[in-house]
Write a structure and sequence with these properties.
The structure holds two protein chains of two kinds.
Chain A lengths: L8 H12 L8 H15 L4 E8 L4 E8 L2 H5 L3 E3 L3 H9 L3 E3 L10 H5 L4 E9 L2 E10 L7 H19 L6 H12 L10 E8 L6 E9 L5 E11 H21 L3 H15 L5 E8 L5 E7 L5 E3 L6 E2 L19 E4 L5 E5 L1 H4 L6 H11 L5 H12 L9 E8 L7
Antiparallel strand pairs in A: 1-2, 1-6, 2-3, 4-5, 5-6, 7-16, 8-9, 9-10, 10-11, 11-14, 12-13, 12-15, 15-16
Chain B lengths: L7 E4 L2 E5 L3 E2 L4 H13 L4 E5 L5 E2 L1 H14 L5 E5 L4 H6 L2 H4 L2 E2 L2 H7 L3
Parallel strand pairs in B: 2-4, 3-5, 4-6, 6-7
Antiparallel strand pairs in B: 1-2
Helix pairs in contact in B: 1-2
The chains are: A alpha+beta, B alpha/beta.
Chain lengths: 407, 113
Amino acid sequence: MMQSDQGSLEDRLRDIQSVTDAALSQLSDQEMLAELLERTRLVLHADTAAVLLLDAPSGQLIATAAAGLEEEVRQGVRVPVGRGFAGRIAAEGKPVILDHVDHTTVLNPILWAKGIRTLMGVPLIAGTHVIGVLHVGSLTPREFTTEDVELLQLAADKAAGAVQSLTGLEDKIAAIALQRSLLPSALPVTAGAQIAARYVAGEGSVGGDWYDVFTLPSGELGVVMGDVTGSGLAAAVIMGRMRSALRAYAMESDDPAVVLARLDAKMQHFEPGALATVSYAVFSPGLDTMRICLAGHYPPVIAPPDQPGALAEIPPGLLIGAAPDADRRVVTITVSPGTLLCFYTDGLVERRRVPIEDRLALLCRAVRAVPPETACATVMADLVGADQPRDDIALVALRRKPTDREP
Amino acid sequence: MSAHDYLIEWRGPRAVVRMPAEIDVTNADQARAALVAATGQRPAVLIIDMSETTFCDSAGVAAIVISYRQAAGAGTRFRLVTTKVERILQLTGIAELMPIDASLDAALAATEG
């Protein structure tokens, strides 16, 4: 194999051909992106290649496709524009080469944990807008040349084209769009609370998972985690209706049991075939207590400072849609300063043939009273790793700030 | 996973449906269909026998709940036999829909007469 920085003009042209090949366009956009990343990695003799796409409402880059770095996508890595390596490329709209990879220069711990020594990244540009970032990494220290940067930019332009046409047509795409539109684009900023979240679609299709975090007129904070049985557009549509209905009932009652009972009655009347699990928690304005009601949903993991995580002791309740007039019970849980709560859907903890007790124990070990972004990253790393999850996964970590005076 | 025969075993007016060793998204539809078929015969009691079931996920739970819901109004009482997957049935509230027994004998004894 020819070193790209020493290759002849002919080799160079072959490399360019490899990433701009018209035959690539015969593939579906998703396959094309995957193949393009693999080719880019090969021609640049890099160990990893990844595309992060800009989610404009949240101002975050979300890992979308990868070669040699699949865990970045599986764990739903997010990087704020303007911060870290990828964030800087998106903010400046120009290439960046980094030959010093550690926690001071790169936000995403997967990159430095994997042992990447050198990174090179370029923006994905559509018209005049940055829509994402393409980067390659090397496990050995190396110098990327100007030609390497140009080649990577060619690949990025090709990728930008594929990404732009990745909209609209199929049910799957519609479901993804619906799902995205219904997940909070920005989590509420609440004094006393730190919040982070992840959503990762399952194999083949999005499902009916959702999370919602909102402030109520009383100043209380509502946190919803739900999962509609089934997948695809049908489940996503029902999920949308449940989400809206729950928000409406949350405005009418501060009692989570009343809210879920009304939601259940509404679903059984208007969506008689639907089945869903829901967890609904209401936090007091200072976050010192949580009132929570479960409808067939796994209980959250609670981790007070310097203590291991444990499943919160909450009486189970029936799934939404299972039977009329189910008994709905609320418990009030004290949340001491610095305590972290982790809400999740079954896709995070259920794995074929692994007893649920074992997976819940693994989750409890992963959850610690740390900043929520760190908690989300650790939980996704420990429970998902580089697996392709079959089911979709939603995760919300919420922490009461360690002291009232901390900014 | 080899195919599982869902036989309805009658003990008087009580129907027993034995569930497979593992129930997940790959076979939950068959489990649901078998339970719905059993409830369609209007037994006084339907015993879901999960004594050989070592793994059940949310898809399996949904199958049980759907069959229960479809039988609503027909007067069939449900019981469930398990020791190995009791945790998920407790967590998802199924245990509130139907009594859980540790053995088929216990379920039968509880529904004598």
